[in-house]
Amino acid sequence: MTVIDTAVPTTTHPFHTTREEERRLRVAAERMVPALTIAQPVSFDGFVQQLMVPPAVMDLARKAHGLRLSVQETEAIRHHLRPVESGKKPGLLRRILMDKAKEDGSHPPYIRVACTGKGTYDHWAKDDYLAVYVPPSGDFGSPAVLEIWPAQHYSPIHSHGHTTGIIHCLTGQLDIMAYGSLAWNAEKMGLYTLTPGQTAWLAGDTFAVHKVYCPFDGGTTTATGPGYLNKSDQFAASFHVYLNDTELSTYSGLDPSRDRFHYIDETDHTEKVFTTYSDLSWHVLAQILAQTELD
Ligand SMILES: [Fe+2]
Q1: Domain ranges (residues) in the chain
Q2: Could you read off the pLDDT of 155-184 as tens digits, one per residue?
């Protein structure tokens, strides 16, 4: 008997799947060899899944394992993401979201924070939040990035090229769809929900193409999609490391690729290039979060 899934239309953002497809993709993600996430195996099948996870990735995951946001950092991020209230000035992160949404409405914005180097909006911190401002040194294209995902916001399908890296969930939940190639109609390989303390990875062609989505309540009656900006202070945060081939002991001579990632535009479905500028430097954001008075 054919089961017709009428619960979710196929055009639903961000993954464009029916419930039956989503169930199948979640099962596929659990069975992948090598495994999509790094874990201590408890069965022989689990051991086989972990066996081919590259040593460079295991090393990154081990180093990132204990990373968390403090309660002050988490609640201060929530404070700065809060939707605009009448008569009150929006927080720094909400202002950045609003500016990014104006610049590019093809997908709901998320925030990149460079753990080394500088960010595009650092000067806003200088102007409005910090009495003493020391400009961050270094350049754009940080190998370590904190990403802040507002509820119901998501990335386009994008590729991390030839980099080797990890995605370590710090707080909240993130749905990650892995794709077989970089194209609007690319084959969906698996869907996984990353929770705090869990680490996904990518290396070379393996898991290089994905889309990331925060499934929490966006506080609106309208569904997410291009042009969407939520009315919620809920979010997820993840710590990302991307190493160029030249930074690995196994350097094979390929060009460094961290400075520019390729993605599929959500509105015209064509491939474009994203220069990996960050929005803020952690050096700046950490000072602001520490000084934020919570309600
Ligand atoms: Fe990514």
Answers
A1: 55-291
A2: 999 999 889 999 999 999 999 999 999 999
CA of 135 to the centre of ligand 1 (A): 27
* Rounded distance from Cα 86 to ligand 1 centre (Å): 35
The residue type at 27: V
Expressed in angstroms and rounded, the spacing between residue 185 Cα and the centre of ligand 1 is: 18
> Quick one: pLDDT band at residue 250, thresholds 50, 70, 90?
low
Measured in angstroms, how far is the CA atom of residue 197 from the centroid of ligand 1? 18
How many A from CA of 147 to the centre of ligand 1?
10
Superfamily the domain 55-291 falls into: Jelly Rolls (2.60.120.10)
Q: What is the pTM of this model?
A: 0.90
Helix axes 92-103, 71-81, angle to 10 degrees: 50
* pLDDT confidence tier of residue 85, bands split at 50, 70 and 90: confident
Look at residues 111, 95, 129 and name the one whose alpha carbon lies nearest to residue 284: 129
